[in-house]
Amino acid sequence: MTVAFAVAAPDGIPEVAAGDDLVALVCAALRAVDFGAGPSPLEDGDVVVLTSKVVSKAEGRSVAAGDREQAITDETVRVVASREHPGGVTRIVENRLGLVMAAAGVDASNTPDGTVLLLPVDPDASARRLRAGLAATLGVQVGVIISDTAGRPWRNGLTDIAIGAAGVEVLDDLRGQLDSYGRRLDSTVAAVADEIAAAAELVKGKSSGRPLAVVRGLGRYVTAHDGPGARVLVRTSAEDMFRQGSAEAYAQGWKDAADGAAPSGPPVPQA
């Protein structure tokens, strides 16, 4: 048996402005390409992946900001790490959505001078609205993922992740199942929504002007209900082994020692 899926990213999404109807824009772009043989450009089980930037623009999340750094500060809940470099300072922070990413997700690219773009207020709600609109317009049951770009500990390079989702099994929990040798899986939980977001980015691209992709062939992950959304992908503070950057954790350890305080953070397991 051969297992496969297909990803397509159509042209045709114009510059998005506050108040634009994303459902109408998505449907128009998909109808302009030959991605389906039926009367609808989407099929049951498809996953629609939309870049968060166009969602933010449609939702009016562009704000005046002469200083991007201040906008980052305003969106920051907690600083994880900051590093100076010849071009300035990079800040890795936790934002109000619980996402840990560079610059709190504040985007100054492809926006008018003097403005920056913030992430959607509630990306999961944005995904649910888009899914409901596509179902009402096209009569199909699809999944929707709102994606954004992020880095990863221990790995160079960026990839797209899901920051909003509806109608998609965002985590595939394999714990309790057996591997091919009959051994029990005790910790394997696949981040399906992130994997789909990353696959979609391979055809959308960062500078191609294609913020939309359709993934076909993964209907087994599309659900009848909206589901919990991408929020469940965010690791809680108690489980986060990278809650501080290395330099920050080192400095905190010295401070705790100087103050005679108990070490900050969870206990370190002994070998």
TrEMBL record:
<keyword id="KW-0479">Metal-binding</keyword>
<keyword id="KW-0342">GTP-binding</keyword>
<keyword id="KW-0436">Ligase</keyword>
<dbReference type="Pfam" id="PF01996">
    <property type="entry name" value="F420_ligase"/>
</dbReference>
<dbReference type="GO" id="GO:0052618">
    <property type="term" value="F:coenzyme F420-0:L-glutamate ligase activity"/>
</dbReference>
<dbReference type="GO" id="GO:0046872">
    <property type="term" value="F:metal ion binding"/>
</dbReference>
<keyword id="KW-0547">Nucleotide-binding</keyword>
<dbReference type="GO" id="GO:0005525">
    <property type="term" value="F:GTP binding"/>
</dbReference>
<keyword id="KW-0630">Potassium</keyword>
<dbReference type="InterPro" id="IPR008225">
    <property type="entry name" value="F420-0_g-glutamyl_ligase"/>
</dbReference>
<feature type="domain" description="Coenzyme F420:L-glutamate ligase-like">
    <location>
        <begin position="13"/>
        <end position="217"/>
    </location>
</feature>
<keyword id="KW-0464">Manganese</keyword>
<protein>
    <submittedName>
        <fullName>Coenzyme F420-0:L-glutamate ligase</fullName>
        <ecNumber>6.3.2.31</ecNumber>
    </submittedName>
</protein>
<keyword id="KW-0460">Magnesium</keyword>
<dbReference type="InterPro" id="IPR002847">
    <property type="entry name" value="F420-0_gamma-glut_ligase-dom"/>
</dbReference>
